[in-house]
Specification:
By secondary structure, this protein is of the alpha/beta class. It is built from twelve helices and ten strands. Helix 7 crosses helix 8, helix 9 packs across helix 10 and helix 10 runs antiparallel to helix 11. The chain is globular.
Length: 335
């Protein structure tokens, strides 16, 4: 188990220049939906082969600092019998683990969700440390509608997220807090910025109240975007300006770095938007490194090439290697 003094060192490694994090923590259900699209059997063995294909791709350690695993995956092994977490660490890629569980409706506001997972968390964290995990992730979901999100939703999700972060640090694991403001909806870019800001301020207020070490904690944030059903468009430059404005007003400077989620964006959109955010962030000397923690934006083209067939693995790995390399370049504003 890492000591408290080691947490800032691990956190800085996760946001090292020119590197980002692969989010490979899709639940069995989410992974199954992606497999269905290509007729891939939804079995533990096929999920193991899929994750193994990604993790064993040559050269990805040059662009990935870490990988977030799912509970099933951290218990699985490579084809050679080496536990995935050990295999990744041996390549210089830090293994992490998603520790939030399912959601429950918010009382009095059934359209909103509260993330579960605090029950039994210390015991699970100890187990994950035994598997070799170095960091954790917890996601909360915030929806934008005419009268949403409610203060109750933001505040209770923030409280639970802060409690999780404290438990992670007690266990010697770096927490990645992910309050995702969803892209779904008809809201404007301005409204997105407003909700992200309110959510982040609540999260960091609770994190400080819990006594978490900000230097050993990482934020995974949504970009400020108009709702996907709004009919509105925003240029990468406008998205970057709104995103940086809200981060500068909401995120403490002591945080070692900020990861962005792709949030349903295409690989091309996620790449262009991150490039603009990083370039503008560098221009204003943003106080934190800005990089990526993508799932679909890295994986979708690879899954489309693989389709569950062994003979397609070399082509799929070549695509993944290029997606990682390109996104790593973009994390330095070098599109």
């Amino acid at each position: 188990m890492a000591s408290a003094s080691a947490l800032p060192i691990i956190a800085r490694k996760l946001v090292a220049p020119g590197k980002g994090i692969l989010a490979a923590d899709e639940s069995i259900g989410t992974c199954g939906k992606r497999f269905q699209k290509y007729g891939i059997p939804e079995t533990p063995e096929m999920r193991r082969k899929w994750r193994g294909l990604l993790f064993s791709t040559p050269g990805i350690e040059k662009g990935l600092s870490g990988v977030i695993l799912f509970d099933e995956t951290i218990r699985q092994e490579t084809s050679e019998g080496e536990p995935f977490a050990e295999y990744l660490e041996g390549r210089g890629v830090l293994p992490g683990i998603k520790v939030d569980q399912k959601t429950e409706p918010l009382a009095g506001s059934p359209e909103e969700e509260l993330t579960k997972g605090l029950e039994g968390l210390p015991e699970r964290l100890r187990e994950y440390v035994g598997f070799g995990a170095k960091f954790t992730k917890w996601r909360a979901v915030i929806r934008i509608k005419e009268n949403l999100p409610t203060d109750a939703c933001i505040e209770e999700n923030a409280r639970r997220m802060a409690a999780y972060a404290k438990e992670s640090q007690r266990a010697g694991l770096v927490p990645v807090v992910e309050p995702e403001v969803l892209l779904d909806g008809v809201h404007t870019l301005v409204r997105s910025e407003e909700v992200i800001g309110k959510t982040l301020r609540a999260v960091f207020r609770e994190v400080k109240r819990e006594g978490c070490d900000l230097s050993g904690l990482i934020l995974k944030s949504s970009m400020a975007l108009p709702g996907k059903d709004s009919g509105a468009t925003a240029s990468p430059g406008e998205i970057a300006e709104a995103t940086l404005r809200v981060l500068l007003s909401s995120v403490p400077k002591e945080v070692p770095g900020i990861l962005f989620l792709s949030g349903g964006a295409t690989p091309e959109e996620a790449t262009e938007r991150l490039n603009e955010i990083v370039k503008k962030g560098n221009a204003i000397n943003a106080p934190w490194p800005l990089t990526f923690s993508y799932s679909r934006a890295l994986q979708d083209p690879v899954l489309a090439a693989w389709r569950g067939k062994d003979e397609n693995a070399p082509q799929a790995q070549a695509i993944f290697a290029e997606r990682v390399a390109q996104t790593a370049r973009v994390s330095e504003g070098r599109l």
